[in-house]
């Protein structure tokens, strides 16, 4: 595969997911998601009431996408990539996270969506709701790291396993936010779309940087 195609494929993927994010944003703004958002919120509340252990499990899962954990994991991942002689990839992981947080803050300010009514929530948090920060940044981090680690393994089964683990973590964290009643379902879907797009964008940029500078 040519170096140009290596960068173009994730860039095309990023465009697809950013378009998906934009469509979700428009649908939410015009109230098209209100029905199933409310239905998912009520279903989550009923499920928590019927299965108390679910709340504890979802709180643990949610913490994996919180700022303290992702900050620590980002530092550890960047340190590992530096230790194995991959400075460009270490920089890409760190830059993807920092820029992702800034972009996310801007998007929240644009959409200005309030969180669900605390009466439906097992966890009450301040701040705006759309898109979900946990869903977005966990997708950015775990998918970016999963792809970078997968590239270091030659066997297809190993690569698929790493990508599956990264996808599962991002999916579990986002789902936990809906189950806990902290976010509307459309917040999480939009967060996943933004996160995958952002991860793909930075993977494309890292590939171009690596091709320009040589291995790293």
What's the story with the biggest beta sheet?
A: none
Overall domain count: 1
Strand content: under 5%
Radius of gyration: 18 Å
> How many H/I helical runs?
8
Classified by CATH, the class is Mainly Alpha
Q: Tell me, what's the shape? A: globular
CATH architectural type = Up-down Bundle
As for the CATH topology, it is Vanadium-containing Chloroperoxidase, domain 1
- Helix share bin: over 70%
Q: Tell me the structural class.
A: mainly alpha
Q: Which residue ranges are poorly predicted, with pLDDT under 50 across at least 5 consecutive positions? A: none
Question: What is the strand tally?
Answer: 0
Rounded to the nearest angstrom, the distance between the terminal CA atoms is 18 Å
Give average pLDDT, whole number: 88
Order of helices and strands: HHHHHHHH
Write structural notes for this entry.
The protein is built from 8 helices and no strands. It is mainly α and 216 residues long. The protein has one domain: Vanadium-containing Chloroperoxidase, domain 1 (Up-down Bundle), CATH 1.20.144. α1 runs antiparallel to α8 (185-213), α3 crosses α7 (156-179) and α5 runs antiparallel to α6. The longest helix has 29 residues, at 185-213. The chain is globular and about 50 Å long.
